[in-house]
Amino acid sequence: MTEDPSASTEAIPVVFRVGDERYETTAGPRQIIHEALDRALPASVRTNHRLVFRSPTGEELFADVFVGDVPRVDGRVEVVVQATTVEPPGDGQPRSFTNFGFDHLAIAVADRAAARDFFHRALGMQVVRDDPHQTVLTTGHTSLFMFDARPGIPLSDPDPSRWHHLGFVVDDLEAALWHIQRHGKGVESDFTLLERDERWSLYLHYRNGPARLMIQISEIKPEARGFADPRRFTDHLYDYSKGPYGAAAKFAKS
User: Fold this and answer.
1) Which residues in 157-169 are b (16+ Cβ under 10 Å) and which e?
2) Residue 205's pLDDT is what?
3) Topology of the domain covering 12-85
4) Cβ atoms of residues 36 and 27 within 8 Å
5) Separation CA 66–CA 86 (nearest Å)
6) Considering only CA atoms, which of 74, 83, 79 is closest in space to residue 32?
7) What are the residue ranges of CATH 3.10.180.10 in the chain?
């Protein structure tokens, strides 16, 4: 399931329609819409916009849909883009937001199938997605996303054994965007809010010395929130938020 999506020689024409404007590129059938829009759409469309994708007949499309799975019109894939400007607060004061913590960690690996088998068979993680774009394993309350270490993945460095990105969940994505733009020293991003099936996501890069970390911030759609698992898995975890952590902190209080 983890074949290289760039290996296909088929080049599918992809047209993004934004109002009266058309932006064209090509993509392989096992590349995702995100990869195509990253090449085709100018910064003026991406920056500080919330992007919604639809087919010409109105069906929902999402950024991580494979181009080859989208019905073609005269041999090409057409994507209608609704680009809504994300306006700053009227009074100039950013709204507050809550960061609920890690939703997932993501890594780039040289052999994704072998890494999948290790985390699944050796560490007992559940495989919930495994296709040419990515592999996702979970323990229920957080997930590990794995990508191939190869050129061409949007926003990503092609080196193995590095973090691909860190994923957080917040309660107000637009508030987080403006807060980051105001206080995020060292942050680089086009600040595009992308719709996915279960969430809205914002991607940014944080540079600290020679290190450059990609961070994904998501707001889960209301209908997709919550857990169906009745087991109280949180009863078995450590609550890092309850106070200073570590033996030194405990010793200092005594």
Assistant:
1) eeebeeebbbbbb
2) 86
3) Ubiquitin-like (UB roll) (3.10.20)
4) yes
5) 27
6) 79
7) 99-224
Cα separation of 84 and 81, whole Å? 9
- What is this structure's pTM? 0.68
Res 79: pLDDT: 97
Looking at the chain, which residues constitute the CATH 3.10.20.90 domain(s)? 12-85
Architecture of domain 99-224: Roll (3.10)
CA distance 40 to 53: 14
Q: Is the pLDDT of residue 3 over 60?
A: no
C-beta atoms surrounding 185 within 10 Å:
7
SS3 228: coil
Pairing of strands 99-109, 143-148: parallel
Whether the CB-CB separation of 32 and 65 falls below 8 Å is answered with yes
Mean pLDDT of all residues in 69-84: 95
